[in-house]
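Lecture notes, unit on binding sites. The following record was shown on slide 14. It pairs a sequence with S-adenosylmethionine.
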Amino acid sequence: MAIRSHDSDTMNAMRIVVLPGVLRPPSDCHLLIEVMRERRLAAGAAVLDVFTGSGALAVASGLAGARTVTAVDISRRAVLNSRLNAALNRVRVRAKRGDLFGPVADDRFDLILANPPYIPSESDELPTRGAARAWDAGTDGRALLDRLCAEAAPRLAPGGSLLIVQSSLVGEEATLKLLAAAGLTAGVVARRHGQLGPIVQARADMLERRGILEPGQRSEELLVIGGSRQR
Ligand SMILES: C[S@@+](CC[C@H](N)C(=O)[O-])C[C@H]1O[C@@H](n2cnc3c(N)ncnc32)[C@H](O)[C@@H]1O
């Protein structure tokens, strides 16, 4: 798969291959890449792509001039996949396997990019293997988002920033409040309205019963939420 930038100025095409069991970069990943490029956040920065999956965000930040790129995922295949895509695109990515910030507990980053699992699921028990680990996020969809918001600030260098992509269905205010409570200046930096993705669509009845979707609602907003640490 080749992802082509809308902004030919900043980006060349990326070559991204996706191994079985790893999530093909969805539209939210593309939106996050666009924001990162438009704001020129990666140039010269130490970047962390947490929840890296195929490594598309890590590769995009390397191509956008990051000084260093680190990628973390809990899935062995994802770590392997991100290494493969880094090599295909000739960018240097330090890929580590582990839970959230566990493998980078002693490091600080200028930019953290995160596309966490955020789709509300049947139960609060998170999958420990299989494809659903890339999207299932507990009954309110916030199991990983809440941890990310609570744990990101100490991983940011002074003046550093965090960009998270999520759906409006799982709470814009909740993310903003948690980031502010962690001492970051938080705000929505991009919104894109669209139809529900296929996994959410397949769960629409359950989500209506829980009040996460309004009756008949079949659209959502993708949000990029930013948090920045003071210098
Ligand atoms: C929505 S996918 C994002 C993939 C990629 N960043 C993208 O934008 O296409 C979420 C990824 O998070 C990983 N993941 C799930 N739980 C995790 C955890 N506790 N710590 C680190 N990675 C996790 C999954 O294996 C999956 O690759």
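Take-home: Helices lie at 27-38, 56-63, 76-88, 143-151, 172-181, 198-202, 204-209.
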